[in-house]
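Lab notebook page, bench 4
Experiment: in silico fold of construct C2
Operator: M.H.
Input chain length: 421 residues
Purpose: comparison with the prior construct
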Amino acid sequence: MAKTASKAKQVQQSNSIHQLVVGKIDYYFLLLIVSMCLFGLFILLSASSYESEKLTKQPQTFFLTQALAMLIGMFLMFMMANFDYRLLRKLGWIFSIFALVCLILVDFSPLGITSGGSQRWLSLGPLSFQPSEIAKISCLILMADGLSKYRWNSANVLQRVVLCLLIAGLILKEPDLGTAVLVLSSCACLLIAAGLNLGIAFATALVGVGGIYLSIMNNPYQLNRFMGWLAPERDPLNTGYNLLQSYYAIGSGGIFGLGYGQSIQKLGYLPISYADFIFAIICEELGIIGCFMVLFFFLNLLWKGTDIALKVPGNFGKLLGIGIISSLCIQAIFNLGGVVGLLPVTGMPLPLISYGKTSVVVVGFMLGILLNISRHKLVKVNPLKVNPQGKQIPQPHSREEKILSKNLRSSDQALNFVTIK
């Protein structure tokens, strides 16, 4: 009897059928994204009102501009949520070369726009954007495609690494050290996830730190920012001014804040309060509660994004998902760390919250890819059950399998059957 039961179990396991299906998006992740967007617009309306009225005579101008950019980003997000992410692997080289050409135009042509001491914008007629933002997702797609097909130390991957280094070098020339480090850090996360030896990773990181040091020492713009971070009180009216004003904003907020719209530092005391230092305004107006809200958003983004990336079948989806979520979270760490003085100020926006037209559009594109990845699942469908004599007998579908079959028939998005033995 025991032998018969064992045989029946073996027969059942050998016929376990799994199917890759494209189902619904992760609604919790979607709700989290929409909540972050609404919160970002809510706080931006207050943080940008003074500067907006000062520059354009209308207190809502920056808010409306950001809202329009966010609508474009949401459109791209929902479009990408319904676009099979696996088709992106064919576009990795195209996107990366396009980003490379745009960065060359920024650095070496009159089309580059200088603002705030660095040349980061590309002007093409009525359209202006930051190519470095496009470079972030381009390098991720390129590296995820290569690492999903080849070993990390293969020539094919090395070619992609060289291109990413060239892109990072052009970004560094703008100068934009923070974004250059972000691009390389995100690519490093992919290499480690793909099996890069940790010893090599550590040695490479040391070389990277040395490169950052040389870049800072040879660039007065970056050196001033770095010295202002190390000792802001030594030059409170120049290099240390922004950070000290950020401290005043955070410290005056207390537990519950001064109240929405009641910030003092946004009234010309804290420069770019609606972009680089928006977290300081959140702390000033909403207090520790607002600070915890921001941390809650990004910790949930990290948890849910990583969960989605690790559950998707196929290495390309896993690596691309890990790259996207690591890029967004590293960017958030750079921004928050700069505002509270734990890291030098990099000038990178806080994703979905700070003012930044190109940033919010590209972030919407990246999150749309993650939403599409969340739709791909490997599901066990109606395995043949066995009777005590070991004969296979087809059984009716369970309720869950009936729903699945209905969805597959209506969507026609099922992929190949895979037999797990």
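Observations: Residues 8-16, 384-421 have pLDDT under 50 and may be disordered. The chain is about 65% helix and 10% strand.
Next step: discuss at group meeting.
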